[in-house]
Write a structure and sequence with these properties.
This protein is mainly beta. Helices cover about 0% and strands about 55% of the residues. The strands form 2 sheets. Strands 2, 4, 5, 6, 9, 10 and 11 form a 7-stranded mixed sheet that branches. Strands 1-3-8-7 form a 4-stranded antiparallel sheet, with no helix packed on it.
Length: about 120
């Protein structure tokens, strides 16, 4: 069992920056992929970014490419999402999740943290 806890959400003006954190605890492993997802009211959950814990390979949704950066800290068992040049369209609840490095579903999820971007 692994627990994921997001933090760092809040209210920010368009063009501003915010850094989200996701701390992992419990039965953690480095043989995983960590991801960020978001869901706005009335919309489906969408993929934002992911990172392979081993090696650090990253991938981003086109909507955030060039603005967001995903990273991880081995010592802290924490994954981050640095969000720059924020737009009102980025407003959503942001969730972190994990899956096995070799494939499978996203089997563990955090509780989410609200990000609101004002115009």
């Amino acid at each position: 069992q692994v627990q994921l806890v997001e933090s760092g959400g809040g209210l920010v003006q368009a063009g501003g920056s915010l850094r989200l954190s996701c701390a992992a605890s419990g039965r953690t492993s480095r043989s995983v992929v960590m991801g960020w997802f978001r869901q706005a009211p009335g919309k489906e959950r969408e993929f934002v970014a992911r990172i392979f814990w081993i090696g650090g390979d990253t991938y981003y949704a086109d909507s955030v490419k060039g603005r967001f950066t995903i990273s991880r800290d081995n010592a802290k068992n924490t994954v981050y999402l640095q969000m720059n040049s924020l737009k009102p369209e980025d407003t959503a609840v942001y969730y972190c999740a994990r899956r096995d490095r070799l494939g499978g579903s996203w089997d563990y999820w955090g509780q989410g943290t609200q990000v609101t971007v004002s115009s």
